[in-house]
Amino acid sequence: MTYGNGLFVATSLDGAHRVMTSPDGVNWTAQTAAEQNTWWAVTYGNGLFVAVSGDGANRVMTSSDGVTWTARTAAAASGWNAVTYGNGLFVAVAYDGSTRVMTSGWPSLPPGAPASLVATPGNGSASISFTAGSNAGPAITKYQYKVGAGAWTDAVGTSSPITITGLTNYVTSSIRIRAVNSHGASPASAAVSVRPKVTGPSIGVAYSSGKNGAFVGFSFARPAGSILVGFTVRAYAKGTNTVVSSCQVLPNSRNCYVGSLVSGTEYDIRVQGYLRVSGSSTVRETFESATARVRINS
User: Fold this and answer.
1) In 3D, which of 236, 254, 253 has the Cα closest to residue 244?
2) Where is the Fibronectin type-III domain (predicted)?
3) Domain of 91?
4) Which residue positions in the chain have pLDDT lower than 70?
């Protein structure tokens, strides 16, 4: 007899019903065995009831609920009379036969380390995609991550990708992850670096064409947590990335005149904004508008 999953289960050597179950050990219900064998022993482990027999064509039967049983083929036609579960493994012994020990289940091994990490930065966060490591043991129950020399933290989800929050924008972080199953944690993955950043808005552009240049006005909402440094407005040769002319403006301005353009010619206009974070003089991020096409008046 054994207990598991909230149920007592007993097996029998003979009779019409060779399994019975009880939720409390007092009230019992007869169940039908997979085959009419002499079921000597039963155990429970890793969500499964397993019974062994000393005779019959199939000398093992299994059940996830103790009620519905499935016949299984034993490792040998021996007189199996005892079975137990421990450390991820079912072990049965026999009183006769050339093979008197058989095992089934997962070895006592944690999973292998995740590999091929790719980090995609977000606003104070990162999405880490990866390839799962080998796993000869029980199913992976969770992934954990470590930022720099910090502690291991449980991630949300049991597959790729995982999302890591609480990172500092514009600061490069080194991240490792590992997999965990019921036998322990995998080795840490190789580190991947990521530099989170503010998610900025697009820059809207409007213009009017002069004879030898273009007046360009634009709108821009500064992302929270950033300091605006200024803007550059560039005129490109149509359909290329070749800069023909440009102008720069201070953070509080939203227009400028791009001169030295040729009348009757079309140009692509784009505006680029520059940002930094508080306490730093280094430009940390740039945002560029979509392209606006303008034809200079003749």
Assistant:
1) 236
2) 110-202
3) 2-105
4) 106-109, 136, 199-202, 224-225, 284
